[in-house]
Amino acid sequence: MTREEIESRGDETMMDAAQIKNQKPEEFFNVNYLRIYYGNLFPYSDIHKWLSYGHDGKHPGCDEYYFGRREFSFTLENDVYLRYKSFKNASSMEDAIKSNFPYKIDIGAVYSVDPDKRHAYSQTGTNVFTPVERELVFDIDITDYDDVRYCCSGADVCSKCWPLITVAIKVIHTSLTEDFGFKHILWVFSGRRGVHCWVCDPKARRMTNEQRSAVAEYFRVYKGNENNARKVALMGYSLHPFLARSYVDYLKGFFEGELQATQSIFSTKDKYEKILAMISDEDIQSELRGKWENSARSSLSEEAISLVRWEQLKNTLQSKKHKAPTLRMCVEEIVFTFTYPRIDLEVSKQMNHLLKAPFCVHPKTGRVCVPIDPNNCDEFDPLAVPTLSQLIEEINSGGSRMDVDDDEDSDTSLLAKSIKFFRSSFLEPLLKSCKEEIESSYKTKIGKSKDSFSW
Amino acid sequence: MEVIRSQKRTPSNDTVSNPKIPLYLTAPPMEVRLEEFELFAVDRLRVLKGVSDGLARGRNPKEMDDLVDTLWKEHMRDPDASVMLNKDIISHFVLRLVYCRSDELKKWFLSMETALFRHRFRLQNFEAQRAIVGEFGLPYKAVTGAELEGLKERLGQVVRSLGQISPTVEAVYYKVPFEEVPDLVASRRVLIQKGYAFVAGSQLVSLVVTQFRSHISKALILTNRKWTTTIQEREKDRLTPIVEALSTSYLGPDYSQSTEYAEISLMDIDQVAKSSFPLCMRHLFEKVREDHHLKHGGRMQLGLFLKGVGLKLDDALAFWRAEFTKKVGSERFDKEYAYSIRHNYGKEGKRTDYTPYACQKIILSAPGAGDHHGCPYRHFSEDNLRAALGRMGLSSRGMEGVMDQVRNKHYQLACTMTFEAVYGTSCDAGINHPNQYFEESQKILKSKTPPAPV
């Protein structure tokens, strides 16, 4: 959209500009901004291309109804919730979003028939309304780490605890690519305090609930609630190779480095008692407690104290670990408790679970749910993600040029970078591979029918 | 498979390459005699019911292996290996017909056949197991040579992570898409790399059982379709009655002939009722003594039981007469009741010697108002059942176990648990027949009586 076009849109936009100048800093989100966002910035055609997985009707092997069988849901202002929405194509999706201004858009599964027509089908027998494809998804939320972060709690997140999410991305992403062989993975900021992961390989989309559950359980290590002090129990004589690799490549270094610096988990009595409770031997607990209670008057920084105490703990356990099987991997258990990813299992297990769409705006923070580069996730800062009001201001000052396709280098608009990343590192490779698959399965089908003479 | 009347059986030409466990992939082209049709199925059914019993009792996998071994040897063995194999195959396919006919039957059959397969598989040696994997046509490659060398260290880590201190990396691993072994993935019992799980030979069971289960499940649906559209009607005078009877049959001894353990006389009857009768018969007996009457259902159930227990006809007549005449008078007794007692003993009418009812039949009966027959574990209210069990001498702890089984509708297991609590001994076979309860009880009591002083 050119500057002329923006200015000619009339009063609506100019009024908003005035509003912006008078806004309170907290006002990151409101319906008017959202309208403008949906009117100008939401990447409809990219989302449509993604979820069509190559079924764009250009190839004879395409299923033109594929996109129309995908369920979407809208959450409107006042928490009105509309499920089983489906759209024939990109423009009907765009129209629906522009007329409803949903505060949240969720993406569900691809069903056997158009969700709109589901009532015509029974629940048993051969003609059923049932999910047939759905991305393998994961949801990591910082509130699940509340028992191990001391800087924030609840919905807050800061630069001290966000690294927990970063480590989680690294561990899970490495496993998804190395262990499971998945190739088309999209990580998205959830808008406030976590991330979502969308695994889009055809193999992943066709997984059954049982298989999804198996992958989720494979990732599960933390089995905690208020009732047990030892929430990670690593049995056996060594770690499974997946856990060993995660420990060596990511968790150990993070625990001994960044975590100590940001959380100082040994520096006060409250904090270290929690860790001592994870050691299942009272004598060792008392021994360490004795050392630490007495060194309270040290002049070292919190971080340094923590590191010293960690070394003491490690040394003590190393010499005593043969005392009981539960002590064998106590050091690793502590590291895992503080750093290993905590995913929401229920989100991953069922095909029909709905998950928020990328590029939505979070109503509480106004931040856009932008993609995250898993290979550079250290650089991602949740507090620097563009907010709705920043985007609107940018439009009004004529700074954004939405023709992202032309003039790549000169486009510096806040959202364009994210959209470009989405396209180049996720969408394009995905569509290329989808087209190849459609092509080859079409060829196989043609080959088969040539050989048969069924009348 | 063709079912024929008694004729010489044509030797079967099926060239099944000798796996010890057939996979039942297709019905083999052989002829089956009509008698064998039923007999083979009954034998296999004994095995499946034994498996069902073992699972309901929570036997661990090793115990189940042994149980299956015993059951198979007892019911399905034949000195001729090819005869044994044929019986295996034929009986499976006959039971498919029997158990495809409703969702509940399908579910039971699928669970039992899968469990049977799982434990038979576990009992095979490694070579036989590999052959079976091959039979399934599973495109899994064994990992060998350089690839295996490269994985050895991590495979060892997996073994150690499962609690084995010195890793014995097995000789053969299979490279399997991870989707096919979800339970091994979920419990991190396998190494996974680039979408493939490396499954040890000893873990093959998981893989193979999943395939087996899926195949049988689909087959049952097809069989059901064929049954309802063609077979049921076509065979209504020949196979259909057999098929319909098989799913509800009782398979134990019929107790129509009393044995040495079970002769009782009128003098002993009260004492014996207290010490050795199962709850259903105790209740009926107490009611006869109390009310001096029983309605028809109760007279049949108790009367036939007493016959099986060894009460002679004359004593039976005396017993019933003694009670009933307190209410109805001697003449009416002779006119209305004596005849049917004699009938039960095969002395009247078509002179069939009726057999005492098995638990299955008693459980399925429908006592109405004023009736006292049926199975107390099923038909009594919880309060009444607890009271009755208390009178039998059960502690409140013993009672909980029994009530648990009742809640799960395992009425025979409840009775078995009662037996075990009353006699302080285990009853591995499980109670299937009131007369069995009586005989087992007598056995125990007689073995406890001290020898007569010389």
Largest interface: A-B, 24 and 23 residues
Mean pLDDT of chain A: 86
For the record, the CATH architecture of the largest domain in chain A stands as Alpha-Beta Complex
If helices are DSSP runs of H or I spanning 4 or more residues, what is the number of helices of chain B?
A: 20
CATH fold name of the largest domain in chain A: DNA primase, PRIM domain
**How many β-strand stretches of chain A?**
9
Number of domains of chain B: 3
Enzyme class (chain A): transferase
Keywords (chain A): DNA replication, DNA-directed RNA polymerase, Metal-binding, Nucleotidyltransferase, Primosome, Transcription, Transferase, Zinc
Pfam family, one (chain A): DNA_primase_S
Family (chain A): Belongs to the eukaryotic-type primase small subunit family.
Structure description:
- Chain B: [4Fe-4S] cluster binds at residues 280, 359, 375, 415.
- Chain B: DNA primase is the polymerase that synthesizes small RNA primers for the Okazaki fragments made during discontinuous DNA replication.
- Chain B: InterPro entries: DNA_primase_C, DNA_primase_lsu_euk, DNA_primase_lsu_euk/arc.
- The complex is a heterodimer of chains A (455) and B (454).
- With 455 residues, chain A is an alpha+beta fold.
- Chain A has two domains: 25-219 and 343-444, DNA primase, PRIM domain (Alpha-Beta Complex), CATH 3.90.920.10; 241-339, no CATH class.
- Chain A has 16 helices and nine strands.
- Chain A has helices spanning 3-7, 11-22, 31-40, 44-52, 90-100, 162-179, 202-205, 209-218, 241-263, 269-276, 282-294, 302-320, 330-339, 345-349, 388-396, 414-451, and strands spanning 70-75, 81-85, 104-111, 131-133, 136-141, 185-189, 194-199, 355-356, 371-372.
- In chain A, the strands form two sheets. In chain A, strands 1, 2, 3, 4 and 8 form a five-stranded antiparallel sheet that branches.
- In chain A, strand 1 (70-75) and strand 2 form a beta hairpin.
- Chain A is globular, with a radius of gyration of 26 Å.
- The N and C termini of chain A lie far apart (57 Å).
- Residues 1-26 and 406-410 of chain A have low confidence and may be disordered.
- Chain B has 454 residues and is mainly alpha-helical.
- Chain B folds into three domains: 34-126 and 211-248, Transcription Elongation Factor S-II, Chain A; 135-208, no CATH class; 268-448, no CATH class.
- Helix content of chain B is 61%, strand content 5%.
- In chain B, the strands form two sheets. A four-stranded antiparallel sheet of chain B has the order 3-4-6-5, with helices on one face.
- In chain B, helix 2 packs across helix 4 and helix 13 (313-328) packs antiparallel against helix 14.
- At the A-B interface, helix 8 and helix 9 of A face helix 6, helix 7 and strand 5 of B.
